[in-house]
Amino acid sequence: EIVLTQSPDFQSVTPKEKVTITCRASQSIGSNLHWYQRKPDQSPKLLIKYASQSFSGVPSRFSGSGSGTDFTLTINSLEAEDAATYYCHQSSSLPHTFGQGTKLEIK
Amino acid sequence: DVQLVESGGVLIQPGGSLRLSCAASGFNVSSNYMSWVRQAPGKGLEWVSVMYSGGSTYYADSVKGRFTISRDNSKNTLYLQMNSLRAEDTAVYYCARGSGGYSLDSWGQGTLVTVSS
């Protein structure tokens, strides 16, 4: 099973700040890495698919990069509405797995 | 519009069985990769199972042999049959659609399963 390790687990940030969340895979997964946002009492929402492809309707301040084992989700100019937990997810090999999540708190 | 609506979550005793349903609209479940994902209280997302459009199915080790994913194309509905339930199966269960590959682009609202005596 491929293990995804996100860092940090928690981050407190101020609006307009640039945020970087990383996801490291225990073995190479190519570009088969996706990012989701989950707000309290809401279902997860797809932000980025296949490492760097923005999903339809997602604000342009969200971007993704990486391949192989190291991936990054970047949020430029953070907004208050971005307070959420962010998860990475690999679909390279079964069982598909999620990272443990990164909780963003807005100061 | 694509919509997924889960149902079937209840309070159930350990060892019991339960079937969750996920009614889809706006697309055909038979034409898409469909997954079940769960979130236990205070925990992160956990991938549970998948059914590919061709009918192949796969499970997380934690549920293998106890859970079965299936679909009814005539009802455009995905199911998760859950047997031999354990306390650690307590979670909100989501169904999700994969589109354009295996990223999950649409999710239901979730249904809560509580396993407790």
Explained architecture:
Chain A is an all-beta fold and 107 residues long. Chain A is 0% helix and 50% strand. Chain A is built from no helices and eleven strands. In chain A, strands 2, 4, 5, 6, 9, 10 and 11 form a seven-stranded mixed beta sheet that branches. Chain A has a four-stranded antiparallel beta sheet with strand order 1-3-8-7, with no helix packed on it. Chain A is globular, with a radius of gyration of 13 Å. The model of chain A has no long low-confidence stretch (mean pLDDT 96). By secondary structure, chain B is an all-beta fold. Helix content of chain B is 0%, strand content 52%. Chain B is built from no helices and eleven strands. In chain B, strands 2, 4, 5, 6, 9, 10 and 11 form a seven-stranded mixed beta sheet that branches. In chain B, strands 1-3-8-7 form a four-stranded antiparallel beta sheet, with no helix packed on it. In chain B, strand 7 (67-72) and strand 8 form a beta hairpin. The model of chain B has no long low-confidence stretch (mean pLDDT 96). The chains are: A mainly beta (107), B mainly beta (117). Chains A and B meet through strand 4, strand 5, strand 9 and strand 10 of A and strand 5, strand 9 and strand 10 of B.
Topology (SSEs and partners):
The complex is a heterodimer of chains A (107) and B (117).
Chain A: E1 4-7, E2 10-13, E3 19-25, E4 33-38, E5 45-49, E6 53-54, E7 62-67, E8 70-75, E9 84-90, E10 97-98, E11 102-106
Parallel strand pairs in A: 2-11
Antiparallel strand pairs in A: 1-3, 3-8, 4-5, 4-9, 5-6, 7-8, 9-10, 9-11
Chain B: E1 3-7, E2 11-12, E3 18-25, E4 33-39, E5 45-51, E6 57-59, E7 67-72, E8 77-82, E9 91-98, E10 104-107, E11 111-115
Parallel strand pairs in B: 2-11
Antiparallel strand pairs in B: 1-3, 3-8, 4-5, 4-9, 5-6, 7-8, 9-10, 9-11
